[in-house]
Amino acid sequence: MRNDTAPTPQAIYRKDYVAPGYWVDTVEMGFDLDLDHTHVATRLTMRRNHDSAEKDLVLFGASLKLLQLRMNGVNLKKSAYSIDGEIMRIPNAPDQVVLEIETRIQPVKNTSLSGLYASNGNFITQCEAEGFRKITWFPDRPDVMAKYTVMLRADKKKFPVLLANGNLIEQGDLGDGRHFAKWEDPFKKPSYLFALVAGKLVCQEEKYQLQSGRKVLLQVWVEDGNLDKTQHAMDSLKNSIRWDEERFGLELDLDRFMIVATSDFNMGAMENKGLNIFNTKYVLANPRIATDVDYAGIESVVGHEYFHNWTGNRVTCRDWFQLSLKEGLTVFRDQEFSADLVGTATGRAVKRIEDVRILRQVQFSEDAGPMAHPVRPDSFVEINNFYTVTIYEKGAEVVRMYYTLLGHDGFRKGMDLYFARHDGQAVECDDFRAAMADSSGRDLTQFERWYSQAGTPHVKVQTAYDAAAQIYEITLTQSCAATPGQAEKRPFHIPVAMGLLDSAGHDMPLHCDGYENQSGANSLVLELTDTTQTFRFSQIGSLPVPSLLRNFSAPVILDIEYSDDDLSHLLAHDSDPFNRWEAGQRLASRRLVRLTKAVQQGEKLELDQLFIEAWRRILNDESLDPSFRELMLTLPSEAMIAEEFSVVDPQAIHTARQFVRATLTQHLRADLLRIYETYLTPGKYSPDAASMAKRSLKNLALSYLLEWVDDSTLALALTQFDEAENMTDRLAALTALTNFNGSGKQVKQAAKALKKFYKEFKHEALVIDKWFMLQATAHTTDVKTICELMEHPAFTLTNPNRARSLIFGFCNANPSRFHAADGSGYTLWAELVIALNKINPQVAARLARSLDRWKKYPGHLQAKMKAALGKVAAAKNLSKDVAEVISKALAA
After folding, report:
1. Which tens digit of pLDDT belongs to each residue from 696-743?
2. Is 305 tagged catalytic?
3. 30 and 75 share a domain?
4. Are strands 426-427 and 471-479 parallel, antiparallel or unpaired?
5. CB 111 within 8 Å of CB 798
6. Which principal EC class is assigned to this enzyme (predicted)?
7. Which of 131, 358, 436, 646 has the lowest tally of Cβ within 10 angstroms?
């Protein structure tokens, strides 16, 4: 009998938090490293926490062979402790304890990539969130902070490099072909920040002088053959160190800082104290293998992990419910870092738009589905499932709202107070809010709801103008739909940055009741704290066009009835770059929704001249930065259009969007050709912002030109593919060639380019990931093609990067093909979730999310999705990770 309800493991609740019964002061660990059987010896000095209700000494362990357990020098008999699943309890322990534990683990068999595992013959660790318990028995929770000393011993020929957290204090030979290295971390840290790396690695290193004059050693460790791809990561690290000193007064606190790149990694990177471990995707780059997007991604992620040294490591989370305390804050910091490095107002706007696109496309969707949860969740089953866009990206928006409300200097004062109060502590989100409130004298009590309430608020706008009295009123009404476990929502504290444009497109002086101190300003931050509020502006001599939510000042959906003329006015004149872009997106979205409905009803498709001419003006406006024009001319994604419908028709959305692209190309072909030729970037590749901007606009023009393909435009793409001396242009040409609709001869030419690309780069793993992703997201790819690619000798399901490129690319980024009417995409999805569950539950759970909004689709697709969900639910040995996602999806 089929059971389509996944078993739901027991949930953990924030309200049930109990402080640990024992604190750990010091941790001494010895590793005898062997891929098949690693021996781990651990000595813990512990003391009772008299403030805790937990009286037993509690440790956690998973997939361990316990060899010996001693307390205060005495071997403990099995009757002296109990083990229930992952929990060991030692009752009646004294107040002062020295606990000695010996365990044996098998890194080579650890395909979960959590704990200590093998990657290409090297040892790697990943301990966040609960991986340390796969190494030894330990009170593996973030509020237990201790100082660590680690001794590593291994075969010197097989593992010549031995790394751990902190500072190297001793190393040498053991005389039997083995060697050792002893590391000491001078700062207390939770177990999730523990790290070790051992293997055959080479490094680029530099001495770097901090502003205080102290010199530190910076190292980027990679496998042999990749050393020529580390300079950008090193430069990004130095830029990060300098920026954190200048922007927040925070100095690197260790004598050395190390980055290690590995190709087998579940995440992008990990901020382990002094020994950051990275996915190769976010370290390796040179012009031959990396795109502009890769260069920007490396800069951002290197910054993110370095910034964690203070926002996450020095001040960490009391429990995992507070995850956004470190992640949301650090995402905000890395966003500001990347924006500051560009150094221009337009560059900052481009960065802001890019971040908001991700938020709207992914996080707003999460907020509207069965996995919706607050920035600070109230419960979870598997913590790995809560490393989400809500925790990270929405969490960053919450931090940004503090910045908007308090200003640059006020926010810095709050950060300074936060560190002064909590350095070396494990704290809560409310502690950060308290620092912001106390440093500014602001009452931020209501702001807490951004942490405790899930969902995306809607802000409805109504306006009224009294010409005789020259009074203009804006009435804002907020609401938030019910989310799982939260039927009622109380009003949020929402900052709404705004301005008013006159008929000439100029910002009007603002005189708003209650905002006397800013009287006459051209932009204000209104504070919406009630369900409905009216804001009254005086001395408004003509009917304005409101520019609301400037710079996307809050993560909300703005419901406002703009006319096309209003949007065209904002698109042409708004002084806020974000809202200029937003006006264009609203114009495009309005037409894409209408055309999607026309496709469904079999009506003739037409695109109006107003829209075409608006696009022409943007394309040819040389006063605009090329990168900004590229963003303005990029249509809303199919996923964004889907959010406009209560019932989604992926094929109709795809048809409508392709029609708009083809029609724009038909009318703007000459303009696009001119832009393409104008923004060619010959010569040596440079990842600077200006060069990136030119390439982005040129390659967008090329992608449009191949929507109305002929031999001349095809030749442009083929020539660029053959002659490009950098991966950005090479991949852009290949992407255009893979997605165009041409004749049989033309298609054969494109297929030849795809084969040539593989042959040239088959030994570059990161480039082959791009090759798989490119095909996974192509308009012509179907399930049969995916299955054929899975049989390719370069594909493996065990490597997360490769699985994400092909499988996730198809399921999450190719909606019109994944949601095929025959349900074949869902059948494949179920098979792969089950297969990945056996290998790597974290990766499997992320793939499981592809169907969590199955009820948003038509009935005939719903039935097939539910059957696929039921198949996964009925699978044997389903992990907590996958079971939680599937059970919530089926219960929606």
Report:
1. 999 999 999 999 889 999 999 999 999 999 999 999 999 999 999 888
2. yes
3. yes
4. unpaired
5. yes
6. hydrolase
7. 646
